Amino acid sequence: MLFIFLSESSIASSxxxxxxxxxxxxRSALASNVGIDIMRAGGNAVDSAVATAFALAVTYPSAGxxxxxxxxxxxxxxxxVVSLDHREKAPKTAHRNMYLDSEHNVINKLSTQSxxxxxxxxxxxxxxxxxxxxxxxxxxxxxxPALKLARNGFPLSYDLAQQFTTVLGKMKLYPASLEKxxxxxxxxxxxxxxRQPDLAKTLKIIMxxxxxxxxxxxxxxxxxxxxxxxxxxxxxSDLADYRSVWRTPVTGSYRGYEIWGMGxxxxxxxxxxxxxxxxxxxxxxSMGYGSSASIHHMVEAKRRAxxxxxxxxxxxxxxxxxxxxxxxxxxxxxRFADFDVASASSSENIDPGIWFKESPETTxxxxxxxxxxxxxxxxxxxxxxxxxxxxxxxxxxxxxxxNDFSIKKxxxxxxxxxxxxxxxxxxxxxxxxxxxxxIVTKDGNPFLITGSQGGSRIITTVxxxxxxxxxxxxxxxxxxxxxxxxxxxLPDQIIHDKYAISSDTRNRLSALGHKNIVESKSGIxxxxxxxxxxxxxxxxxxxxxxxxxxxx
Length: 552
Ligand code: GLY
What we know:
Blueprint (H helix, E strand, L loop, with lengths): L10 E3 L3 E3 L3 E4 L2 H12 L4 H15 L9 E7 L5 E6 L36 H12 L4 H14 L1 E2 L2 H10 L7 H7 L11 E2 L2 H13 L2 H4 L1 H13 L6 H6 L3 E3 L2 E5 L2 E5 L6 H12 L4 H4 L4 H21 L10 H5 L1 H7 L27 E6 L5 E7 L9 E2 L4 E2 L40 E5 L2 E6 L6 H14 L5 H6 L3 E2 L7 E3 L6 H10 L4 E3 L9 E5 L2 E5 L7 E4 L1
Parallel strand pairs: 18-19
Antiparallel strand pairs: 1-22, 2-21, 3-11, 3-22, 4-5, 4-12, 5-8, 6-7, 9-10, 10-15, 11-12, 13-14, 15-16, 16-20, 17-18, 20-21
Bound molecules: glycine.
């Protein structure tokens, strides 16, 4: 893998870059450059991450947002790792059967494409709290780059122009959405300057007033009025009461490395560690990347971990998630005890485990500075462009995160994930996520920052980046680029990137009993990652999508 070596000027590549002082790898080159400019101006990785996240809300509106939520995992210079949950919450009037008709059937699209699909947004609260707690710069310093991009505009890339054209059909009921994403209903074309004056106004209010600029006052009123006009449920008090939560990160070890992840209400950290625990006793390195043996082992670990997800994972403020049990290496061994090296199991026969010893579109970016502050940050509106609804006068696109709840027991959501009691809808509860911002350290020192987009595929993407680096000894570019596979218990199928499974390997997997092996229509994951080796920082932008790693 070719790494471009430059240390004096900002550099960007879709493959990999080297940096000496700091690195930002994100889905948008403009946003990555914002993050690096902040560090050049003396900001730390947290200042940089907050500025990058606000910039992504402008330059990558499919998932970057101020109307959604996310998770931040931060390793501080002293080695402590903290995590901030700014996931959306169910509005206070939400209830278990709100997306079901009188016969208890799921009402089509109500949880994905309606005002009722939106959870109470957490991004602004989370970003400002991160800045106040661990940043060193002012709101003006970190928000003004995003504000300028929104006000002055930027030339639309091919990727964004295509996305807008595709999504317009779903926005036709919403005039403010059409106004934002088209020229009077006509699609923008690549290279045209795209400006977002309403969003610029909103960002300015947030910049001047802080948290109340979003959760109270004129912006909040416009959100509530939009809800009241359209049978939505987010109220003024839902907004005023929203607070992010500092949560204890989940942690584990793998072959001498320390793994740090986001705990519930994300399932990501737990599942990554659980699968690594199941796989640790096996010599994946000698099996070789892409072999039927290594795919078989990983699929069987994924099958079991996702079965546990459906049963046990939800908002820990509402459900007693057995975190200790799920992270325990003994539990993993017991859970994997029925693994047969010569034969695939069937998801029908895999129930969630019981310990006898006593959950497409999202975006991830990684940031590191020269003090060893590492930020692993994943944010989302859930579906691409959320529920497609722009709140008139604000430029804010709303999320459709309510679909991440289990809206009916054992009924698949848009990622085909099922859920049960732990993730049932309750007022004020946070919906279960698959977002997996991850940090890996070695003897307490910075090693790897990774994470991904991709709904349920996020978790298995992260798993494979870690295994590629640690087990297969790959350089970061290869670890992120090479084709991936995915399995999530139900539906019982192996989904794979193009070229991930040769015909030989497919035959061997079929002989083991893996019946459904399906090529994914789109790339699996978008893992914008950073690796540290000695004093060198390597940044990689996943080539499955646009964006850039930028270092200096
Ligand atoms: N909305 C995708 C996730 O949180 O996993």
